[in-house]
């Protein structure tokens, strides 16, 4: 067990990107709203009846989106922690159920050219023992990568 704990991955990072045919300012303005995430989040599709609540001023640092849903989406909250205007929105994801954990998430918006923007959606965190040992046999990228791809595809459809 000690050997497994020593070799187990201590961190994870997952990200996916998509190019959207809209100017960066327009994409950024849409993405900064936690409420708008309901329109493209892959997890809303997994439980359209989940309980949702936003506290604070949506789109501003300190705004929190709380959810409580079925087994696929669990319970947790996302808090906007940093906004770099026209460029990046950072948040802290706090999962409460089925497993308590915290991750750092971000939406990075880069200008490809005047009418196209590249959106990168990612998150990272630390694998704490004993979860770190489980990650020897599982891949966070495989677990959520397809959800990120699905969400970004829906985001692109929504904005174009």
Automatic annotation (TrEMBL):
It comes from the Bacteria. InterPro entries: Polyketide_cyclase/dehydratase, START-like_dom_sf. Gene3D superfamilies: 3.30.530.20. This is SRPBCC family protein.
